[in-house]
Prior knowledge:
The chain is an alpha/beta fold. Helices cover 39% and strands 14% of the residues. It has helices at 3-7, 43-51, 85-90, 105-113, 126-140, 143-163, 189-196, 215-221, 232-242, 249-252, 261-264, 271-287; strands at 19-22, 28-31, 38-40, 58-60, 95-99, 118-121, 170-175, 199-201, 225-229, 256-259. β5, α4 (105-113) and β6 (118-121) form a beta-alpha-beta unit. α6 packs parallel to α12 and α7 crosses α12 (271-287).
Amino acid sequence: MSVLLLATVPAPAASSGGVSVVDDTGRTVSLAAPARRIVSLSPHNTENLFAAGAGERVVGVSAYSDYPAAARERPRVGGFGSMSLEAVLGLRPDLVVAWAGGNDPRLVARLERLGVPVFRSQPASLEDVAANLERLGRLAGTPGQARQAAGRLRAGRDALAAAHAEARPVRVFYQLWDQPLRTIGGGQLTDRLLAICGGVNVFGGLEVPAPQVGREAVIGAAPEVILLAGDAAERGHWREAWRDWPTIPAVAAGRLHFVDPDLTQRHTPRALEGARRICRRLDAARAGGAQSPR
């Protein structure tokens, strides 16, 4: 590491306004003062920082950080397989927000050795997202905005869950990818969104986050609804491939529906809208009708 890059790491400022939180891995993150230069290493962290009111303090983001629109204007520091330590340090961050399950742990550890505080995020539910918002707000000095955003998220989740508390369970297959055929395992965000709506993930017993499954296994699971992660323009062939299996209840009833993965797989407040859309599809299945593919 060059002396120049080492010099870009800000020294802690003396301040009586220090903040401290515990991140999603149990590590304590302490700052001498609220962060003013934040670098996000994943799209969900970028979105959550903006939702927590800290958007103006975000000086760098990872590839695919595309929401909100202002995030697209921030300098990029690379993608998951090409994150640049030099690019991160060149932005002189006083806080880096990393994805515990997605970023290279060696890069994150090196940042810490160089004196850069790191908050590791690993949300798996809407409640986890709300808690992330509150902690990011404290670290960024925007606790009021963060609490409001977290409160709206919790209220929306509770209302949706209450409306479906007595709903008939609906068996769902969520297609994450086509070749190889992949779905979501139990405990993942999408799995939990399904549960809010009274949906039963037919592969929820698998602990792998994105397990590979066979079409025969899907046939045996007899899902009533199939959700396809994408849109008709990108994934239309996925839906057509299922037409060859009319014994699957979802296929026979025409319940193969596209969902926006940014709403159903990204760990942000927008996942609440993803849950609402899933609930509408499952409600229609309970009513006995087919739906449009969108």
